[in-house]
Amino acid sequence: MAKKNPHLNPETFRDSLATVLDDGKRNWVYPKKVKGFFYKYRTYVSWVLLGILFAGPFIKVDGRPWLLFNIFERKFIIFGAVFWPQDTYLLIFLLLIFFVFVILFTVAFGRVWCGWACPQTLFMEMVFRKIEYLIEGDANQQRALNAQPWNQEKIVKKSIKISVFAFISLLIGHLMMAYLIGIEAVLEIVSSPPTAHMAGFIGLIAFSGIFMFVFTWFREQACLVVCPYGRLQGVMLDNNSINVMYDYVRGEPRAPIRKNAAENVDKGDCVDCSLCVQVCPTGIDIRNGIQMECVNCTACIDACDEVMVKVDRPTGLIRYASENSIKQGFQKLLTGRVKSYIVVLVLLLTVFVSLIATRDDISATITRFPGMTYQEREDGMVTNLYQITLINKTFEPQEVELKSLAEGMNVEIVGAQHLVLDAQSKFEGRFFLVRNQDEVKVNQEKVELALFYKGEKIDEIETNFTAPIK
Ligand code: SF4
Ligand code: SF4
What we know:
The protein is an alpha+beta fold. It contains 17 helices and 16 strands. α2 (88-109) packs antiparallel against α17 (336-357), α4 packs antiparallel against α6 and α6 crosses α7 (183-190). The protein starts with 36 loop residues before the first helix and ends with a strand.
């Protein structure tokens, strides 16, 4: 008996997954090739976006990467602006702004991101799927190929496909690593024996393997069961959100066209050809309404428009629309919810810009050297040892000076007289605070240290100085 997909049944679709059959097995989706207005423009957009994505690690601004997400060193470069671990609060703000922007955009325009710009969709539909069509043919040919025994044709086609997929997965794996550790580090890893950079080599292979798994086998499951954005749609969308929608007012009651014109009277525009279902990469029937599985890829719009042209009915039976625009005939974009999100977004942006404008160019962190209290010198001086971390966030080398503001207390930098910081660099060193034992009045003294740049005080740091009272 043929296995049924309960998700295509209007009665049961809300209680089932499109890619799970009624016997619990995976329903492998074979989306039919699509062509049309939206597919054409999505292809153009994908070329631009994939071009930017692959060029990203190579783009340098004043010799530094344009984008870098080095989670290992907690150093991030976003559009040329560098964020150090000390700037975590700025990154949190940036993330908040990103989330509010995503929510605002989703409330107004649904899942446009998923269909047009998400890297998962871009690679799956515009790279891997196209290669699959090229090697194995359209949906029916793929079905037939998978069903046939392992003969020469199947072995050749599958081998070519797996080899090409593996090559592209390797490229994406290397690209991902380049965004994490920089293109120079990736080139260093690939041009050295694996043992020279074992961790980096394992990272490259792991990322490539994950991408191979996702685009060869996991596919739409990434959107359906893994992606948190997709799963949150239900709480973000409302009846005014614009989505890929089936116009049920115009389309129902659906019925195939009959030769006898009288039988077509009182029927909707949907001719129940099921092409919109056949082209869907997530295996759903958009005529059941908005569903979590719909990535707004527009394939069903193109398929349906083609049918409408053939049957001489107006296009747009499936189109970008909101529930309200279909039901009531008008579209409201600036709803109260949208306005509120805009206000929150503007507030967050204002705070972020002012935080960036007042950010220190050089940041300093001072901690006492662990496990040590004080040292007494033969010349009657008492010292405390400290660790100092300086970060030069500017793009120029800087020479700074560390001074104690406490009277009679000196700073002795270990191994260096000057603190010279390269552009965009981190300096880690040690220094002593030195006081004459005769001047010690308390066992533990609060001390203000100041950092000077070109004679101007740029930062003040407080620490403790410990000494014996004699
Ligand atoms: S329902 Fe239409 S827009 Fe949504 S995923 Fe399927 S084909 Fe794409
Ligand atoms: S493609 Fe259009 S006409 Fe055909 S079933 Fe889908 S909605 Fe109806």
